[in-house]
Design brief:
Distance between the termini: 24 Å
Number of helices: 5
Largest sheet: 4 strands, mixed
Number of strands: 6
Structural class: alpha+beta
Strand content: 15-25%
Shape: globular
Order of helices and strands: EHHHEEEEEHH
Bound molecules: zinc ion
Strand order of the largest sheet: 1-2-6-5
Radius of gyration: 15 Å
Helix content: 40-55%
């Protein structure tokens, strides 16, 4: 499968730190992204309610979302020999794939997309790298907090 990395990333999220601006920001999202925004807001609330580690990575997720640091790309992209569905930086910037590829060989569900975002938030919140648990730990963290994977 050819790389999709040349495709422009779609801007996603609410480019305002004001929580009161959420409704306006959500309205500004393209229809295709509004479902992700709604699902994220539900998960942010659920994670806050669960408390502990769930609330901790949930607050990282919420911050990225509110600050407009989440970017949705149309498709997964190549990183070496792997296809990536999400990546993040310690600053809170995250890039997520909406679908697997342009030919619709595989479709990512809304749950898949939200789980990817939670996964990246867990990496950031607990500084999870290969040396302290890696992918298994990030996946387990989201699973323990009731996230899909
Ligand atoms: Zn990971």
């Amino acid at each position: 499968m050819p790389s999709r990395s040349g495709r422009a990333a779609a801007s996603f999220g609410i480019a305002s730190s004001a929580f009161a601006a959420a409704d306006a920001g959500r309205a500004a999202l393209r229809p295709r992204e509004a479902d992700v925004a709604q699902a994220l807001e539900r998960r942010i609330a659920a994670l806050r309610e669960r408390g502990g580690d769930c609330a901790r990575y949930g607050s990282v997720l919420e911050r990225s979302y509110r600050l407009g640091q989440l970017r949705l790309r149309p498709f997964m992209w190549r990183v070496g020999s792997d296809l990536a569905s999400g990546e993040s930086k310690p600053s809170g910037e995250m890039t997520l794939a909406r679908e697997i590829d342009a030919l619709n060989v595989g479709v990512r569900t809304l749950d898949d997309v939200v789980a990817s975002i939670e996964h990246e938030a867990a990496h950031i919140a607990f500084d999870i790298t290969r040396s302290n648990g890696g992918e298994e730990r990030a996946v387990a963290t989201v699973r323990e907090c009731g996230g899909a994977d």
